[in-house]
Amino acid sequence: MDWHILWQYRAALWDGLMTTVWISALAIVGSTVVGVVIGCLGSTPSFFLRRLTSVYTELLRNLPLLVKVFFFYFILSMPTIPAALLGLVLHQSAYIADVTGAGVRSVARGQLDAGLSLGHGYWQVFRYVILPQAVRIVIPPMTTQYVSVIKNSSIVALIAVQDLTYQTQEINVETFRGFEAATAATALYVVVALAVIGSMTLLQRRVLAR
Amino acid sequence: MTDLRSMVRSSRAKLLVWRIGCAIVLVLALRAVLGLDWSAVAPSWLFLLTGLGRSWLLAVVSIVAGGLAAAPLALARVYGPPGIRQAATALIECVRATPELMIVFWVYFTLPLVTGDQVTSWNAALGSLSVIAAVYLAEVFRAGLYSVPRGQSEASAATGLSGFATFLYVVLPQAVRNMVPALIAQLVGLFKTTSLVYAIGVMEFFRSITVTNNAVFAPYELYLVLALGYFVSCFAITRVVRWFDPKYQLLE
């Protein structure tokens, strides 16, 4: 074992880590926005909205992420980063839509009826009664989804985005020190995942405290 | 006029409108599909089907192997003595926090550096997918064990059954019943994960499509086959899960 190799390649590992972090961050923001909108539309009483959103989630959930990313990169000839981001957002937004829908539906039906009987419109009840309650329920499964985004972001290495996985492979090719590089990369992935889990736990505490 | 409007409001009429809409979209899609040039792709149908079969084989074999490894892991995490319990937890959580692609690379590129002998890409694929399946299934088993109400084991202890008998005759049968949908749902995730072993050169469905495309260059036709192959496979598994539990939420 030669752990000095990590110090020697610290710039490459750092660049890889930063690429992974910012791609994941953008993908998390994007898939949350798309997923929450789709999930909320899917939990409305409207029959057609429910059907359409379920087509969206079923279609995207049953295709591997690699298929989406390669489609945007090779078939539509998009540049690497937009292809990677679009793939990640489409993939995870389907799961986040399901999580959001489940959260909204788990708020007791009586809450909606009570709001409507007081004369509020559906969107008013949704905004002021259902959403605040759903947010608390949704945070833990959302954390799982965000960790998935970070893990899934490693797939972008296959279209030559220079993320952490890509740099690990580069170090392996250049120096045959794959073990040290893979250990470091795995540890860094675990650290990033733990950071997300930690901040989501803090967020949940703040939401619950209110 | 009011009759018509109340009719459209009724759920059966809506369903009819939805089905007609779906039928129109399907017919249009079918026309577009038939309009593509399939002559280049058609001769490779057996090759592509073999690739899809290999993906299925990878998923099924590794979920069985992973299940066998997951049982002791889950038992260690739930019932293990203090030291072993933490070790099992740490192992499961660390592997779960590692990207699947990294695990594939670990097994194929990195472990041979340590052990000294090269593994074939097929064995590496089976090994890495089994490891992935093992940690996720361990969590499914754990959730299944926890899903049995505590009162059940307390009641059986009160009737004089030993700890092991309680587990075997009271907790386990109920846990297994509760975790069947989640077990099958893991197969959906694993089937999609099989596309990652493309990276180490296994000729599964994804690679067989890209290889064919390199030879004949028919990206749209082949991508359609690719999407259809994965969608139909995963959707079929999803239907099986729904058959066991209509309300089951498939989240990865």
Query: Structural class of chain A, please?
Result: mainly alpha
Give the structural class of chain B.
mainly alpha
Going by CATH, what is the homologous superfamily of the largest domain in chain B? MetI-like
Count of DSSP-assigned helices of chain B? 10
Low-pLDDT sequence parts of chain B: none
Mean pLDDT of chain A: 90
- N-to-C terminal Cα separation of chain B, in Å? 47 Å
Count of discrete domains of chain A? 1
Work out the strand percent of chain A.
under 5%
Number of DSSP helices of chain A? 9
CATH class of the largest domain in chain B: Mainly Alpha
Question: How would the global form of chain A be characterised?
Answer: elongated
The residue ranges of chain A in which pLDDT falls below 50 over 5 or more consecutive positions are none
**How many beta-strand runs of chain B?**
0
Distance between the termini of chain A: 51 Å
Profile the largest sheet of chain A. none
Please, what is the average pLDDT of chain B?
Answer: 89
Order of helices and strands of chain A: HHHHHHHHH
Element layout with pairings:
The complex is a heterodimer of chains A (210) and B (252).
Chain A: H1 4-8, H2 10-42, H3 47-61, H4 65-75, H5 80-106, H6 109-117, H7 122-152, H8 164-175, H9 178-209
Chain B: H1 2-9, H2 11-35, H3 45-79, H4 82-97, H5 100-115, H6 121-147, H7 150-158, H8 163-193, H9 205-216, H10 219-244
Helix pairs in contact in B: 3-4, 3-6, 3-8, 3-9, 4-6, 5-6, 6-8, 7-8, 8-10, 9-10
